[in-house]
C-alpha cells in the first residue's frame, strides 16, 4: 500500500510539473524513484520514460485544446528526438550506473544555476 501511494505521489508531482513547466519525467520521476523506492538509475529512467508517454499524451491533448501546440515545430523537435532517445538509451547501457547518477545530478545543478543566474 505504501509503495502504491508513493508511486501515485510521484505521478501527481510529475503531472503537475509537466503541465506547469513542461518537465516532469527526468526532473521529478527519476530522482524520486531512486530516492523513495530505491530504483537503480536504469530502471528509474526506463520507468520514467514509460510514464512520460502517458503523461505527454494527456498533456498535449490539453495544451492543444488551449491552442498552445505548434504541430510543425513539435515534429521538427520530436522526430530527431526519437533518434536521440535511441542513441541515449544505447549509451546509457554502456556507462556505469554511478556515472549516470553523477552526470544527471550535475546537469540538474547546471540547469538550476542557469535559471537563477540568467
Model description:
This protein has 118 residues and is mainly alpha-helical. It has one domain. Helix content is 85%, strand content 0%. It has helices spanning 2-21, 25-37, 41-65, 71-92, 97-116. α1 (2-21) packs antiparallel against α2, α1 packs across α3 and α2 (25-37) crosses α3. The protein is globular and about 40 Å long. The model has no long low-confidence stretch (mean pLDDT 90).
Features:
5 helices, 118 residues, mainly alpha, 85% helix
Ordered list of secondary-structure elements with their pairings:
Layout: H1 2-21, H2 25-37, H3 41-65, H4 71-92, H5 97-116
Helix pairs in contact: 1-2, 1-3, 2-3
Q: Could you estimate the helical fraction of the residues in percent?
A: over 70%
- Strand segment tally: 0
Molecular shape: globular
Assess the beta-strand content as a share of residues: under 5%
Report the major sheet. none
Secondary-structure element order, as H and E?
HHHHH
Unreliable runs, pLDDT <50, ≥5 residues?
none
Structural class: mainly alpha
Average pLDDT works out at 90
Number of helix segments?
5
Number of domains: 1
Q: Radius of gyration, rounded?
A: 15 Å
N-to-C CA distance = 43 Å
Amino acid at each position: 500500500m505504501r509503495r502504491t501511494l508513493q508511486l501515485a505521489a510521484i505521478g501527481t508531482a510529475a503531472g503537475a510539473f509537466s503541465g506547469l513547466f513542461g518537465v516532469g519525467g527526468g526532473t521529478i520521476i527519476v530522482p524520486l524513484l531512486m530516492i523513495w523506492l530505491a530504483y537503480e538509475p536504469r530502471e528509474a529512467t526506463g520507468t520514467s520514460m514509460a510514464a512520460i508517454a502517458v503523461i505527454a499524451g494527456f498533456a498535449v491533448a490539453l495544451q492543444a485544446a488551449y491552442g498552445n501546440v505548434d504541430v510543425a515545430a513539435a515534429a521538427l523537435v520530436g522526430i530527431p528526438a526519437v533518434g536521440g532517445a535511441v542513441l541515449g538509451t544505447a549509451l546509457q547501457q554502456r556507462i556505469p550506473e554511478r556515472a549516470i547518477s553523477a552526470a544527471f545530478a550535475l546537469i540538474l545543478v547546471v540547469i538550476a544555476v542557469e535559471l537563477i543566474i540568467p
